[in-house]
Each structure stands twice: as C-alpha cells, then as structure tokens.
Amino acid sequence: MRTDGVLKIETEIVVPFFDVDSMDVVWHGHYVKYLEVARCALLDDIGHNYTQMKAAGYVWPIIDLQLRYVRAAEFGQRLIVRADLVEWHNRLKLNYLISDALTGARMTRASTVQVAVHMASAEMQLVSPKVFTDMVEQRLLSTSSAAHGGASHPHAPHTS
Questions:
Q1: Less Cβ crowding at N or C end of the chain, within 10 Å?
Q2: Is 67 a domain residue?
C-alpha cells in the first residue's frame, strides 16, 4: 500500500489523440507527462512552483521515477491524476495514482523523487531549501486550520 501524502491534489486529463500509439492505447512514455501536470498543480497549490524554485536559486531534477502500469488508457478517456506529497525535508517525493474518472478503476501507480541543486554551485543539497520547506509548512498549517473549523483556504487541496 502506498503512503498517502500530507498534501494532495487531483487533476483531470482527457487522453488526446496524439498520445495514442498504433495499438490504440496511450504510449507508455506519455504517462510521465500526466504526472508532470499533477506535480505542477501540487507545487502551485503549495505556493512554490518551478518558477519560484528557480528564482530562489535552485533546480529540482528528478533522480528517480517508478511506474507500474495496471491498465492501458485509451483515446478520449477521462483520467484523474492524483499527486500526494510524502517527503519534503531532504528531497521531494510524490506518489501518484492515475485512475479512470468514470469508474474509479486504477490505471497506473507511480512515484517521483527530486532533489534540490543549487544553481550557482551545481551542488546537490542534502536538505531541501528552507524557502521550500517553509512554504510546505505554511500550506500544512492552512490545511489544518481549515480542517478544524477555520476559514477555508483558497488553495485547499482536492481530495479523493
């Protein structure tokens, strides 16, 4: 069983024609693109996306990617891509679940790991930059506050 994240978001993708191969299913490499869409949505929700990461002086390359295909997606199929934040102090680890939007059937499970690299020195960081961890902590506080009767946060995560 995969770990649920402390923050999560869901995005919907409708499989476009150009993602389907000659076998009439989504070519396996396109699933990575779907993960990226969900990851970007989660980073936007946290308030520290790739543009802000770069402005803070860091790039975050993916150092590990795991995918497990369960069912093939088809042209026109509506998919829900859920991204769960599971680690952020020393690295950025997300778990993903791609499911059929109509039936809820699991299509693909995945995870990615990214590390911060200081742009000026090109050195990999052993701890995530404070600017990023602070944004995650702020987002967690706002989610906790909203869950305990506080005012709803405008960026509240979508839950499944």
A1: N
A2: yes
